[in-house]
Design a protein that fits this description.
This protein is of the alpha/beta class. It is built from five helices and four strands; from the N terminus they run βαβααβαβα. Helix 1 crosses helix 5 and helix 2 packs across helix 5.
Length: 173
């Protein structure tokens, strides 16, 4: 399946951000993608999940704080595990670590061609998990790395400009 065959010409890009527990990196990536789509006035949908996530956990406090520092609110985020429905929904699946990619490929054989290492778009192999760090600098570093990677990835996508009859970010639920 080719890179472009995952999306219709007129539809939004559908970005799925995947980490371990869906409380730090993937919710930050999701929110940054939504913010960048608004800035660029592109049709895009973004969601996030975790390969080992428990449902309905809040985003980590330090992740919420790091994002608030750049004007993005993720306080309403609630975690969710990866599902076949999310994988099928996504045109692009952006993972933080090699083990996330391996887990997806083992559990969802049809995801071939959709899964990409997000860090590769910002010059790193993996985006390290800040969870458990006592101090904010690790969360800020992660946020900034995610922002660089998300921006670089989205800049490589074909433009999907909004039209007057479509919202910038379609409600994904």
């Amino acid at each position: 399946m080719s890179y472009d065959s995952h999306m219709s010409a007129a539809g939004p890009h559908r970005l799925l951000f995947v980490c371990t527990a869906n409380i730090c990196r993937s919710p930050m990536g999701e929110a940054l993608a939504r913010a960048y789509a608004i800035e660029r006035q592109w049709l895009a949908e973004a969601r996030s999940c975790g390969v080992s996530a428990l449902p309905d956990n809040e985003a980590a406090r330090r992740s919420v704080r790091a994002m608030a520092e750049v004007g993005v609110d993720i306080s309403a985020h609630r975690s969710q595990p990866v599902t076949a429905e999310l994988v099928a929904w996504a045109s692009h699946i952006l993972v933080m670590e090699i083990r996330h990619s391996s887990s997806l490929h083992e559990r969802f054989p049809g995801c071939d061609g959709k899964v990409m290492m997000l860090g590769n778009f910002g010059g790193v192999m993996e985006i390290e998990d800040p969870y458990g760090a006592w101090f904010m600098p690790r969360y800020r570093t992660c946020r900034d790395e995610l922002q660089r990677c998300v921006t670089s990835f989205m800049d490589r996508l074909p433009a999907r400009p909004i039209t007057t009859d479509r919202p910038i970010i379609q409600d994904s639920e």
